[in-house]
Amino acid sequence: MAKVDFIFENEQDKLPFTEELEAVIRKAVETTLDTLEWEDVPVQVSVTITDNEKIREINSIYRKIDSETDVLSFPIIEFSPEGEALVNEGDYDGDTLLLGDIMLSLEKALAQSEEYGHSFVREVGFLSLHSALHLMGFDNIDEKDAVLMRKFEDEIAEKMDLRR
To answer: 17: number of CA atoms within 13 Å, CB side?
Structure first.
């Protein structure tokens, strides 16, 4: 089982960030790493809980897209086309590999859960596993990569019992 050290920061006050939401984020990241058979070294993941206004600002700065989004991923390590981690000494904090950062808008997640007709917790869990896949080198920009990413999203969501 993957060893993950989490750092949580709640930067918003529009919706409560509950223990249940924290637990589903933890489980999503851990299940993603276990599904991908990550057992190399302990990792650290930073999770920032935010609102639409702040995530729009960050999306505009880093992706040049001036609109709110649900989740942003900021991987620290790179992966080869074969999926091998390309790690160097600066990617570690002691013995822990700094995997990356997740920024999640609870506001957007709530709106999407209502739009899609499933629970808020399910939406937060799905967005978290989606983001964790990005931290592990997956992308969904071109169709071939998107198909592979969706396969893993479905597998991980099934393991977590995150049905729509």
So the answer is: 16
Q: Which tens digits make up the pLDDT trace of 123-145?
A: 999 999 999 999 999 988 888 88
* Residue 127: C-alpha distances to residues 84, 85, 123, 138 (Å): 24, 23, 6, 14
Tokens describing residue 158: 């099934």
Residues 6+ apart with CB under 8 A from 12: 49, 50, 51, 54, 106, 107
- Using a 10 angstrom Cβ sphere, with 0-12 exposed, 13-18 middle and 19 or more buried, the burial of residue 32 is buried
Give the span between the Cα atoms of 123 and 113, in whole angstroms: 6
Provide the 10 A C-beta neighbour count for residue 58.
17
Looking at CATH, the fold of the domain delimited by 4-159 is given as: Collagenase (Catalytic Domain) (3.40.390)
Q: pLDDT digit string (tens) for 32-77?
A: 999 999 877 899 999 999 999 999 999 999 999 999 999 999 999 8
Per-domain boundaries in the chain: 4-159
Three-class SS state of 9:
strand
C-alpha to C-alpha distance for 82 and 68, rounded to whole angstroms: 32
